[in-house]
Amino acid sequence: MMILAFVDFIGRFHPVLVHLPIGVLLAACLLQLFAKRFPLLKPSIPVLLFWGAMAAIVSCITGYLLSLSGDYDGDLVTQHQWLGIATAVVSLIFYLLNRLSLASGYAGFSAVTIIALITVTGHLGGSLTHGAGYLTEGIEGDPAAEAAKPIPNIQEAVLYADVVQPLLKRKCYSCHGSSKQKGKLRLDEENYILKGGKDGKAIISGKPDESELIKRLLLPLNDDDHMPPKEKPQLTPNEVAILSWWVSTGNSFTKKVKELPQTDKIKPVLAALQSGSGGSGAAKNTDVPDAEISAAGGDAVKKLTDAGIMVVPVSNEKNYLSVSFVTAGSQARELVKLLDPLEKQLVWLKLDGSNIDDAGLAAIAKLEGLTRLYLSGTAITDAGLQHLKSLKHLQVLNLVGTKVTEKGLVQLKTLPALRAVYLYKTDVNKNAWAQLKQAFPKTILDSGGYTVPTLVTDTTLVTADQQKK
Amino acid sequence: MTKKDLIDQRLVKEAEQMVMHTHTRRHFLKESAMGLGALAMGSLLGSCGGKRKAAHSIAFDPAHPLLPKAPPFVGKAKSVIFLHMAGAPSQFELFDYKPELAKMDGQDCPPSFLEGKQFAFITGVPKMLGPQAAFARHGQSGAWVSEHLPHFSTVVDEVAFLKAVTTDQFNHAPAQLLVHTGGPRLGRPSIGSWVTYGLGTENQNLPGFVVLTSGGSFPDAGKSVWGSGFLPSVYQGVQCRSEGDPVLFIKDPDGMSRDLRKASIEAVNKANMQEYKEYNDPEILSRISQYEMAYRMQITAPEVMNINDEPQYIHEMYGTKPGRACFANNVLLARKLVEKGVRFVQLFDWGWDAHGDNASNALNIGIINKYRSVDKPVTALLLDLKQRGLLDETLVVWAGEFGRTPMMENRNGVQNPFKGRDHHTEAFTIWMAGGGIKKGATHGETDEIGYSAVSGKVDAFDIQATILNQLGFDHEQFTYPYQGRPFRLTDVGGKVIQEIIA
Questions:
Q1: Which residues of chain A are within 8 Å of residue B158 when distances are taken between CB atoms?
Q2: pLDDT in tens, A162-175
Q3: Is the Cβ of A456 closer than 8 Å to some Cβ of chain B?
Q4: Which of A284, A307, A451, B374 lies at 20 to 30 Å from B224 by C-alpha?
Q5: B47-54 contacts: CB < 8 A, separation 24 or more?
Q6: What pLDDT, on the 0 to 100 scale, is given for residue B216?
């Protein structure tokens, strides 16, 4: 056991030692290439070659010992090994030729050969350490940094192929894949996942708490056994939840999401995958469409801003717009027509406290992309609400302090996306609430009117004398 | 050539030489080397760290510094109301229920809590002090809230608690600066300044960043906690009042008509414009726009900032005291301002420093009155924002600058005459609500006597990062170039607290 551990210890020097032959041999080869022009350099060449060859041999030995650990397997190691040995042999021969002064004819050729060998061997070694594709990932994009793409319909997706496998690919393959198998574990194919690694099975069907794969994800970041290692990109809480749910439902490789029992805990995680926020967990609004859209015409925007209306994109990365009449409310009735050219881009419209009226709302009927519409404190009534029936993306409607009633509201029950309607201080009849709520089963209807009672303690002060008693 | 011509010629030559002197060889070399070096450096810096995301680019238009701007990504919150309890409320009497501490009441503090520690006042071996309140669980979330907040305990399901907040500053001024500016020393911009710099504000007739104070005194860190630091000065907080004129001198003086006021502001602006043409200092353009806004504010501010026109039931809900400067009035005003499109409203309520060295800051006397003064208005604020459909897009933050010790305070080894606790850095509770924060969440835990955080530990930078995240910023990319390097609110710290984000 001690010997094995010692072998392993020596082997781990390989990644450090390999830099010696690379540097020394490169120096020798470069000197050789310039030797014709600067003959003074010549005497140093055999010295460098000798030490370079020695370093190469030591690297080969340590490399072999490292490969015994079994963390690295596959074709890549074999190629790296033989090319490394070739480098050592060629440089040794080159040294001997040089010593015997027989090299003059082949010197240039040998130098180029060694440079080529070092380059290729070095690259393979790099691929082993950092994972294949490391060199180009800056250009092609790092798979681990790539956010999970939204899945159009999560319920119809195959849990392993569409969710679990891409996740493993992003966060695990670089060490547990085809080129490298740390801990003798491979996670890139079904039979390897089931086989497990050197510490036994990675997953125990239906028991995430006993499965190494899940347990190690949940260890504290500073624990040596925590996976992924703390310097690598970590799994988000949602990703851990997905993996653990996959194991707890029997780690099926074929079943669709809808065929598996869904707990209340996993539902929002699945929903997040569909909207695309599953991996990153960044704040994401669902009331801005994901689809790309062209920017609104500059003229149309300028006309609005010149009239004192605030037109602002919802974010720098989107062309969708929010419009506010906060300081132009007194002209809203006339100016609302200027919004027509923005019908594709406009998603949030604030008309709170403006002079918009029922007739004015007719202009809004065309703005079908609206997801949030604020009409609080305006003179609109039931008659105006009929114009909103066409707003099929509308999610939030603010009618606080208007004269609308249940009769007008019912017209909007067909709006498919409606999530919340604010109805504080409206003329909705008290007795109609139950009926309204039935008409809008998926919508929060907030009637407001909350009160905070005044308690005796709210208006009295505690004094030192009282406390003494 | 006459003698005079000669003298003239000499003078001209001398003047030319003076100019040359200011441009020495050293200058020349320095400038050209700097230019070349900077070019090379720029491309070098650009090429390393290729995976780094680009910094948020904030377009600063000095002529219209407060126009609304799009956030880098879609944020959930549009505005922020930050309720700062200056002096640091005690977590033990409000949110962090510690029955084990009650059992230790009156006992000597175990030495393990004192070794190597430093406190603002406590020396020697203090006695432990049990919670000075009864606790119960409230709402569906089952959050612990003490009897001191009977109103607030009805709305805990709207709120996310952070119970393991820590700081490294145990004096008021530096700790407040850390919470609000991201550094314990003077000179950094406050969070409200950062936010208005990054997002502008919707209503161009009102300031974007309004500050309201109550409790009879300014926060210990003074006006620097709402200062603009190295950001353009237009982004500093504008202090308003809920008593008398909302802004001092907002009324035209007697005999000054609106036309005359307009003419005088135009004249001032003309002079400023002249100055700008000469010096090209963008701060002058900001000054012009400030004058213009002040003129507009003369009409809009008294209207928006007048809480008296609110209906009676709203006054009853908030427990306001019209005509007096108090926290309840400020809270109601904050709601009105946010409703009118003000980006950041910062409230400071002074008087939470529960040392127990006199009756007014004793946990069982004066501080109870502080609880009473905020409980109703804060509850009303959350409910009122909710019923107006504003809570989803308004982030409400309630926080002190640090926590308080589980020990009873002593001074020079002598126990204070009243029940009080010293400043404490290792654990305290704050809460956030609205603006995309998870409802009914609790994150972080302290040990069984509430001395220090054991899980879910967060600090001021994490809170700032979370606030910026809710507004649509990546706090690591939201920077401002100053003194040759990019500065950010969260300095080199901060991690968005995902656990409390909906």
A1: none
A2: 888 888 888 888 88
A3: no
A4: B374
A5: B50/A138, B51/A138, B51/A142, B51/A145, B53/B474, B53/B477, B54/B477
A6: 85
- Amino acid at site B51: K
Q: Which of A452, A468, A386, A374 is nearest to A420 (CA)?
A: A374
445-464 in chain B: CB under 8 A from chain A = none
Number of domains in chain B: 2
Give dist(CA A86, CA A124) in Å, integer: 14
Distance separating alpha carbons of residues B343 and A115, to the nearest angstrom:
63
Question: Given pLDDT bands bounded at 50, 70 and 90, which one contains residue B7?
Answer: low
Cis bond leading into A228, ω under 30°?
yes
What does residue B297 show for φ and ψ, rounded to 5 degrees? Answer: -65, -25
Domain match, B228 and B102 both: yes
List the one residue out of A66, A64, A53, A62 whose CA is nearest residue A21.
A53
Phi/psi of residue A124, nearest 5 degrees = -65, -40
Which among A400, A450, A454 has CB closest to B389? A400
| Test the B interface: residue of A452, A457, A460 with most B CBs within 10 Å | A452
Residues A6 and A124 in one domain: yes
3-state secondary structure of A236: coil
Q: What is the CATH number of the domain that holds B150?
A: 3.40.720.10
Residue B51 belongs to some domain of the structure: no
Q: Give alpha helix (H) positions in A153-218.
A: 165-171, 190-195, 212-218
Q: A30 is written with which tokens? A: 């470069």
pLDDT tens-place string over residues A89-119: 999 988 888 888 775 677 788 888 899 999 9
**Spatial contact of A115 and A31, defined as CB atoms under 8 Å apart:** no
User: Is residue B252's pLDDT more than 90?
Assistant: no
- Domain span at residue A168? 154-275
DSSP A40: G
Cα distances (angstroms) measured from residue A407 to each of A41, A428, A435, B342: 98, 8, 11, 35
B411 inside domain: yes
Residues of A in contact with B51 (CB under 8 A): 138, 142, 145
- The closest alpha carbon to A243, from A208, A276, A280, belongs to A208
> Are B188 and B297 members of one domain?
no
Report the distance separating Cα B21 and Cα B10, nearest Å: 16
Q: Which residues of B touch A313 (CB under 8 A)?
A: 70
Does residue B79 belong to the interface with chain A, where contact is any CB pair within 8 Å?
A: no
- Cα angle, residue B422 at apex, residues B418 and B427 outer, rounded to 5°: 135
Residues 6+ apart with CB under 8 A from A163: A151, A154, A157, A242, A246, A257, A273
Band the pLDDT of A38: cuts 50, 70, 90: confident
Expressed in angstroms, the distance from the first to the final Cα of chain A is 76
Confidence of residue B49 (pLDDT cuts 50, 70, 90): very low
- Using CB atoms and an 8 Å cut-off, which of residues 406-445 of chain A contact chain B? 420, 422, 424
pLDDT cut 70: percent of chain B above it: 90
Same domain, B227 and B182: yes
Report the relative pairing of strands B421-424 and B159-166 from DSSP bridges: unpaired
Q: Among residues A174, A277, A270, which one has the least CA distance to residue A227?
A: A174
In angstroms, the CA B257 to CA B251 distance is 11
Q: Per mean pLDDT, which range of A2-16, A237-251, B42-56, B81-95 is the poorest?
A: B42-56
Nearest CA in chain B to A313: B70
CA distance B494 to B502: 19
d(CA B11, nearest CA chain A) in Å? 55
Is residue A461 within 8 angstroms of chain B, CB to CB? yes
- Percent of chain A scoring above 90 in pLDDT: 35
Position with higher pLDDT, B287 vs B89: B89
A317 and chain B in contact, CB less than 8 A:
yes
The model's pTM is 0.71
